[in-house]
Automatic annotation (TrEMBL):
Span of domain Multidrug resistance protein MdtA-like C-terminal permuted SH3: 336-395
Organism: Acidicapsa dinghuensis
Record protein name field: Efflux RND transporter periplasmic adaptor subunit
InterPro entries to which the protein is assigned, alphabetical: BSH_CzcB-like, MdtA-like_C, RND_pump_MFP
One protein family per Pfam: RND-MFP_C
């Protein structure tokens, strides 16, 4: 028991002596780099999705069952190519009926143009003929009585009566002639106009029937690819449901939603690039293009401005629906303070982060900075650092503030 107590005392004594002098803080080995000053591009980035250069949503104009589908998703199509045929038996019957109506109307117009005389016009002609004969008779009677009056065979009263009869016959003839001329103008003109109007109506009905018949055929309005299909043979096609979507993929458009506070420097014609969402197994290189659309309205739900980055796509490598991000080069920052991305830890969803600097005594100091990404490897620090500062780029994780550090040299 005495030896055990002595042994315990010997173990505890060194600890007491060390506590009296105080523990020395460890020196942590890190990798550092001096802050660089560079000219770097200014860019605006935002999430984006890919669309075709143009997209046509093809919906039927009539409700009918689908008789035949000639293309499917992924197929390349040409402008005007037949995509599907709807049932058209009733439409064909309507067109045949309309064609018959046009033929009948054309025959009626020809008859009117040939001068067909209705009963009323025929009676007017007969009346004029009768009045003409009565006028001739009245003239002959008056001429005979003039001779007889000259010979003293009749009185002046008889001559006056014959004269009045001739005048009345002439008036009756003129009235009949005027009535016939007026009747010819009225009846012939009305018949012609009615015939012309009937033909126009018949042709309009025929055109409508032909249009309805054409609506039973769904055709592509542009060259492209079928990217969506909702109908199959036997389905009931309806006007309120697009049957196909055809996208022109000769170029792709990345539609980005740029934060409204960052959208001011973005304009048409600027260089832009689209990068697909990262896939560690098969990383995709960025695709480069130009800004073609900058919306002049802010989406209140997203507080964003839509920007289109158009990308060449001759090999059709880019597909619609792909998600990624768009970067737009909006200028150049001269004399920017740049550090490696590994040197800063950003607060999630912000432009603020933490970074360690090292002073002349090789003591690390934790600082808060404001920074933005230049690319995957570099960060531009907007505030918190100055040229010539030394920052820790490796080994700072979990490092307490004011820790003594060691490094071989300052590397660039």
């Amino acid at each position: 028991m005495k030896y055990f107590s002595l042994f315990l005392l010997l173990i505890l004594m060194p600890g007491c002596r060390s506590g009296d002098k105080g523990e020395e803080k460890p020196v942590v080995a890190v990798t550092v780099q001096r802050v660089a000053v560079e000219d770097v591009p200014l860019e605006v980035s935002a999430p984006a999705s890919l669309f075709g250069r143009s997209e046509a949503h093809i919906a039927p104009r009539i409700t009918a069952s689908v008789r035949q589908v000639l293309v499917h998703k992924g197929d390349a199509v040409k402008k005007g190519q037949l995509l599907a045929v709807l049932d058209r038996s009733d439409l064909e019957a309507e067109q045949a009926n309309a064609t018959s109506g046009v033929a009948l109307a054309e025959a009626a117009l020809e008859q009117a143009q040939a001068g067909h005389i209705p009963d009323q016009l025929s009676q007017a002609h007969a009346d004029l003929t009768a009045k003409s004969a009565a006028l001739d008779l009245a003239k002959k009677v008056h001429e005979r009585r003039q001779r007889l009056f000259a010979e003293g065979a009749i009185s002046g009263r008889d001559l006056d009566v014959s004269n009045m009869s001739e005048i009345q016959a002439q008036a009756d003839f003129d009235a009949a002639k005027t009535r016939l001329e007026l009747l010819e103008r009225q009846i012939s003109g009305a018949d012609l106009k009615i015939a012309q109007s009937t033909l126009a109506q018949a042709k309009a009905k025929h055109d409508l029937a032909t249009a309805d018949l054409n609506f039973s055929e769904l055709r592509s309005p542009t060259d492209g690819f079928v990217t969506d299909q909702t109908i199959y043979a036997g389905d009931m096609a309806k006007p309120d449901v697009p049957a196909f979507t055809v996208a022109d993929l000769s170029s792709a458009v990345a539609r980005a939603q740029v934060n409204a506070d960052q959208a001011a420097p973005v304009s048409k014609g600027q260089a832009c690039e689209f990068e697909q969402r990262r896939n560690e197994n098969s990383p995709q290189p960025p695709h480069f293009g130009k800004v073609t659309v900058v919306n002049q309205a802010v989406d209140p739900a997203r507080y964003a401005v839509e920007v289109w980055c158009e990308l060449p796509n001759n090999d059709h490598e880019l597909k619609t629906g792909v998600f990624g991000s768009v970067k737009v080069i909006v200028g150049q920052a001269h004399g920017a303070i740049v550090v490696p991305s590994s040197a800063i830890e950003f607060d999630e969803g912000t432009d603020r982060g933490k970074i360690y600097t090292v002073d002349a005594q090789r003591v690390a100091h934790l600082l808060e900075v404001v920074a933005v990404h230049v690319d995957d490897d570099r960060v531009r620090v907007l505030s918190g650092l100055k040229p010539g500062d030394i920052v820790i780029v490796q080994g700072e994780y979990g490092l307490p503030d004011e820790t003594k550090v060691s490094f071989d040299e300052v590397r660039q």
